[in-house]
Amino acid sequence: MKRRHFFGSLSWSMVGLGLAPSCSNLKEKEITQQKESGENQLQDGSPAYREKIKTTFSEGSVMGSNDRVVLALIGAGNWGTNLILNITDINKNVIVKYVCDVDDTRGGRAISELEKRQKIKPVRVRDMRRIFDDQEVDGVIIATPQHWHALATIWACQAGKDVYVEKCISLNIGEGQKMIEAAMKYERIVQCGTQNRSADFALSAKDYIKSGQLGQVVSVNVMGLLNGPVPFNEKKGEKAPDTIDWNMWLGPAPKVPYSVSRNKSNLFYWDYSGGLALGNDSIHQVDLARIVLGDPGFPASVYCTGGRYLFDDQRDMPDFQMTTFDYGNFVLTLQTGEFTPYMLKTNPEIRYGDGFPEWKQNSTKIEIYGTNGKMYVGRMGGGWQVYDKDRQVVAQESGFFSLKTHLGNYIDCIRTRNQPNGNIIEGHKSATLVHLANLSYRAGKKQLYFSGEHETVTNDQQARELAIGTYRKGFELPAEV
Q1: Residue 433: which residues within 8 A CB-CB, separation 6 or more?
Q2: From 48-57, 77-86, 88-97, the region with the lowest mean pLDDT
Q3: Measured distance CA(379)–CA(196) in Å, rounded
Q4: Are strands 139-142 and 69-74 parallel, antiparallel or unpaired?
């Protein structure tokens, strides 16, 4: 017998911005400039995926708590290996049947360690589509470069697999929309790799703000400053080694000759990522800020500036970006960059203990300014503290790094069909903030206005074109998932 499971209440009153595929063919005359009053002049309907949201899932049988789950790892670098080993460490009734990577030099540690643990050697494959053809596989862990996240997730959902997809979940706004469509159509669990969604301290910080004790929130500052500065020396004109399927590595991205720089430093190229500091790292802080603020939708405008100030090395990504999001009743700023060796991430003793970061030089903190006090929030185990005007701590809760809890939640949801903590809808909303920041920067450091109803940039054609993305033949996003 099939059982139905509630997705939970979904509010789309504040969702927005970006370019929906359904809007990508709008003629310029159909999109008028934003009025000075900020009134939205767009006439077209909402993105198509909105109508496909389901509040319940009915497909898929419910397993028992001890039923075996068969998984595959797609993307077997250091982080993908860490994920799959953590999963098998916390859940003994999980078996990993495949380890997939287009690069034969990766995945060896995962295979050897998994063989020791489960007494069965995982099958090494290059092409993820072989995994999707195997009906025995229940779920996949997608830890590829970011430009593969959306298409791999869609293919997995079409094949009836549940998905854990790493951050940033998409390379552009339209991809997130298609991922939601696929998850809803095929009723697949999609857990986004934003682990703070499974952190108890994130929820208690949210409750504290909701209680009104912090007062009215007026300003939020999110920080993502990595160690650096790091010069970049791009290498070109190399022959692809026999150990890598370069065509499959590129996948949806434009066809270019092999380059070890693109292969190993793909987070420095717009073709493959939203940036090392922004899309790969600060997405955690952005998502955490949204959690504690009650998961607001999208802002009315965004402005991002920055540049390559330290090295003239032709890298796509800037050394520093400063982004301002206008939410109407509060402002959220985001600082990201790679030039601050004196700013440090929270150390393991704090992440796995009951202490708090030294906020002054913490590189990944969130500062929330209310009319009654100031809250500091630390990602991935940093906890939170509230200070009053006398610089006294008036409320606090330590935190614990929730990676294993988050991975465990994914496995539980495969069995129960309940929706995961890091569901694809909130993952899309948080990822869209990253995309908007980069759109503003890449369109010439312009203030962009956008419509929450239409998820469309309203005042800049270049930004709209950048938001569409480009895909090679054979790796296109399907018009109908």
Answers
A1: 286, 298, 299, 302, 325, 334
A2: 48-57
A3: 7
A4: parallel
CA distance 150 to 180: 10
Q: What is the pLDDT of residues 353-389, one digit of tens each?
A: 999 999 999 999 999 999 999 999 999 999 999 999 9
Q: Please report where in the chains the tokens 């009104």 appear, as a residue.
A: 212
Structure tokens at 401: 């790094």
The model's pLDDT over 399-418, given as tens digits with 9 standing for 90+, comes to: 999 999 999 999 999 999 99
Cα–Cα distance measured from residue 137 to residue 160, given in angstroms and rounded to the nearest whole number: 9
User: Would you state the structure tokens that stand for residue 203, as one six-digit string?
Assistant: 């929820």
Conformational region of residue 270, where left means phi above 0, alpha means psi within -120 to 50, and beta covers everything else: alpha
Tokens at residue 431, please? Answer: 């990822």
Residues 6+ apart with CB under 8 A from 77: 101, 106, 143
Compute the radius of gyration of the chain from its Cα atoms. Answer: 22
CATH 3.40.50.720 fits 51-196+404-423, yes or no: yes
Residue-range domain boundaries for the chain = 51-196+404-423
